[in-house]
Amino acid sequence: MNYINLTKIAINALKRNKFRAILTMLGIIIGVGSVIGMLSIGEGSKKNIQDEISSMGSNMIFVMPGSQRRGGVMMGNSDSKSLTMKDIEQLEKSSQYLSRISPQVSSSGQAIKGNKNWPTSIYGVNTEYLEIRKYELEDGRIFTDKEISSLGKVCLVGKTVVENIFGESVDPVGQTIRFAGIPLKIIGVLKEKGQNGMGMDQDDLIIAPYTTVQRRILAITHIQAIYASSIDEESTDQAIEEIETVLRSQHKLKEGTSDDFEVRSQAEMVQAFSSVSDMLTMLLGAIAGISLLVGGIGIMNIMFVSVTERTKEIGLRMSVGGSGTDILMQFLIEAVILSIFGGIIGIVFGLLISAVATNALNLPFIVMQNAIILSFLVCTAIGVFFGWYPARKAANLNPIDAIRHE
Amino acid sequence: MQKTIIEVKDLRKDYHVGEVTVHALRKINMQIQEGDFAAIMGTSGSGKSTMLNILGCLDKPTDGTYLLDGVNMADMNKNQLAQLRNSKLGFIFQSYNLLPRTTALENVELPLYYNSKVKSKERKEKAMYALEQVGLADRFHHMPNQLSGGQQQRVAIARSLVNDPVVILADEATGNLDTRTSYEIMELFQKLNDEGKTIAFVTHEEDIARFMKRNIVFRDGLIKTEMTVDKRHNATQLIAELPHESDIDF
Ligand SMILES: Nc1ncnc2c1ncn2[C@@H]1O[C@H](COP(=O)(O)OP(=O)(O)O)[C@@H](O)[C@H]1O
Ligand SMILES: [Mg+2]
Questions:
Q1: pLDDT of A97-107, one tens digit each?
Q2: A324 near B CB under 8 A
Q3: In whole angstroms, how far apart are CA B231 and each of A29, B115, B186, B187, B214?
Q4: Domain B35-53+87-244 classification at class level
């Protein structure tokens, strides 16, 4: 047996049946391409959600007032006044697993400068808030403890507010804007952060000392939320437990009664969203699996449909001296060539789909090696098997029976 | 003494179709010597093709011995049989059996691909030479569907010649052709035989059989008669005597 000759024979046979070769490859291309495309879209959206959630804060934990009874009625929590600065002080004093803590009070309203105004929200916080929420200063400074204790009329502004009130030409630092009738001097500008996982603009905000918002704007004594960072990712659960213990004792809650606050963590959100996107990936994977199957059946069909013609060809080849092994090798080489070319085109096609789709959907472009290898192997296996199986049957025939095959 | 190329002893071939057993060959004894040009004749169903397929190692006998060039075919495995078909036998079918969408040259080259002794350079030369022998060198680049029936059969003959076999086996090689073209093919066979090729040629047509040296007549799976042809036809002469195409009125 001569492999060079057999390869030439195989290539000639493929050239003679270009259409069949292309159809076979198409099955492989569709199979491989869709698996790669679908899975990378799924994986990209998962990565995207994770990234966006983690961009919302660093090991962030937040506490809201109110409660959520298990299996019961969701209590409204917007007007609950259970959280106070005392809670913050107590947490600062006793916690081991929290690195930063900040209160939050917020209000929405118009930011006004001269004849320009812009609807936005103001957040009253302390100086640790920026790090908890992963905000950075682009210009200026953060407020001082003195400004907090003196209800200072100062603020930091996000990029969206700057663009809508000042445009590009004016340096906002040092300017004064009015919010809810209060003049606030801009002492710093926040770096742009973009949208979060829910599509909210994270740059559309004003940050001011919590005392200023609490007293001057809202005229309240409680706080609306607590934001904190655990010391690291692993201690999130302990930190949550700690907060619950401290707050329960602080609020003098008896055993058996439910919390009058609710603790949530970023990790939980990541998990919740990941399970959604895992389902998406599975769904896309199922679609891809079906296209792989359809592609495989396509390959199978073409191989079986061409059996009659090819059986005659096999008979003829045997009559001029091809052995059963020669015939089988020829068909295997044909199938391998088709599978490899189809597979490579399929991979390129799949990566192209993922690149275009992830670009259009604004997702990170992730090359999934496993998907590439798996789909390639599956298609090659299908192609080779269904190229080989009918050939083996034919190669076992008497040459004369193969030639006479109808 | 002449060399015996083919020797068949007590050969039998049965076909089983459902419950029925067809005795296609009952008890065949025959020899073909080197340089022979033998017609295997007989009515349809008499077992001619069955005989030729066995001689061509395309099929196996139910019983009996077949010696090709002194070698017992019963001792050969499948791969060895394939090699024998490649190197010692040239088979020609009634329906040409060329590969479609493949040039005449490539069709003739086909057996050489299964002969690892032939280098790729030689392959083309040998195939071209075979095409020259059948007078089709100028059509080497044509596809089967661009050739007439007679030309396709010439390509098939070139293919059977290309490995320089010890015997050429033809099954109704003129069966699909008109008289003139049949005679032209017979002219080619007579030329090949004159050059020393041993040929066994199946036909049911008596006038075709008269181009050959010897007639072996089959009947119901047995040899009825064997005879040397007297007043053998000369194809070149007969073609010259045929009316010219331009003489025929339509
Ligand atoms: N593959 C087969 N299966 C069953 N019967 C067959 C087969 N091939 C030939 N026969 C039978 O064997 C007999 C001889 O056939 P064949 O050799 O083709 O005759 P010929 O070529 O002389 O016309 C016929 O009766 C035919 O029906
Ligand atoms: Mg016949």
A1: 999 999 999 99
A2: yes
A3: 67, 41, 16, 16, 11
A4: alpha beta
